Amino acid sequence: MDRISLYILTWNVAVSPPKEDLREALDLCEVDCNSTSLPDIYVTGFQEVVNKPDGIIYNALFEDEWTNAVRDVLGDYGYVKIKTNRLVGIVLSVYVRREALLRYEDIDAYVTRTGFGGLWGNKGSVSVRLSISGVSAVFITSHLAALDGFYEDRINDYHLTVNSQKFKYSKTSTIFQHDYTFWFGDFNFRLEPGTLDTQKIIDLVKQKELSTAFEHDELSKAMKTGQAFALMTEMEPHFPPTYKYRVGSNEYDLKRRPAWTDRILFRVAPWEVEGQKLSLKQHSYRALKNYTQSDHKPVVASFSVAVPHYDEKSKATAMFKIIDGWQLDRPGEAVVTISKDFPKSAWDWIGLYRENFTSLDEYLTYVWSPIEPFADSQYLISIPTDSLSIPGRFVLIYMSHAGSCAKGISDVFEVKRGSITYRLLELHRFGR
Hints:
Elements: E1 2-12, E2 41-47, H1 53-61, H2 65-75, E3 79-87, E4 90-97, E5 104-115, E6 120-132, E7 135-143, H3 151-164, E8 180-186, H4 198-206, H5 210-214, H6 218-225, E9 262-268, E10 272-273, E11 276-277, E12 280-287, E13 299-307, H7 312-315, E14 318-320, E15 326-327, E16 332-338, E17 349-354, E18 365-368, E19 378-383, E20 392-400, E21 405-409, E22 413-416, H8 420-429
Parallel strand pairs: 1-2, 7-8, 15-22
Antiparallel strand pairs: 1-13, 2-4, 3-4, 5-6, 6-7, 8-9, 10-11, 12-13, 14-16, 16-19, 17-18, 17-20, 20-21, 20-22
């Protein structure tokens, strides 16, 4: 079994745009772009990204500011965003190393609304599930019912999420059928009512007696009694309560009792994969006090998990022949060989991407996969280049409709400027 590393960030950003440098939040302050210690997977969960009507309309049409900000940072380190799922202000994104893109398959997502009895998405859960070298993993970020005294509402939100989330893969159609489960977000669990008042909690934090305050944590109670998250595990947080702070400072807002509202939980399934036991190690669990633009502190955790060995060459389902001779203003041709055992679909497609693409969504143009091969398992594709304004270096990616994932990626190739002769022939052809 191989081990791959994951880094998870959750943050309720309180409807503010990204103002602060995100490199610390992504643990990249002292890491070189070519470092071998970078995580294999980044997963980010943001809450309260937008709650205004005009913002909702904008974000239905365009990617949100927080996802763009994270992508801009991680793109410099060779990461590609393979999926974003969102529900109003709740946004979950998954990023992987570009060179290991084919390792991640069978991507699916689901949304559960819990606000106003499930009718509105101001509260709820969003998830992304995928397969990593044959093992399954699901990531869920939630924003549960708020305020002191609403413990039962948070319990109900949890059960609504568990019972409603359904994925299209039969063996992992529910959350807890997955090999690895990571659940994080602003769960909004407080310290039990009638135990500690605001000033007492602050005094305990100043005295570094966090465990005394944490004894009254509602989420821990729910997990121990089996009311919610009973199958999940959490490393005990050794950081101060993450809510509620005065924006722009590290001082608590006395209008609310401080609480550990922002959490990261995990689960490892008890069964074996390929005759070997699954395993997970948690390496860190931190709140980041240097961020002050929200009334919540971001919380991060790092993990490593066991997965079957990954062989990049044997993983490729679609293999491109070396591409050469492409020019602007004329279609480019490529040959792709597709494995005979791959269930090819007419809805599969081939996208043209820039060499250093940072998202599977940022293709420049695409064509549907050909239906019939011109030779044994070989397919000829023709890609229009009229969407390209300047020459450059590009790749082709074969995308599976069924798995919502990449099944093959070409070597980098160059597109050069077109010849004057060709352009004159085209102008004459169309009578211009």
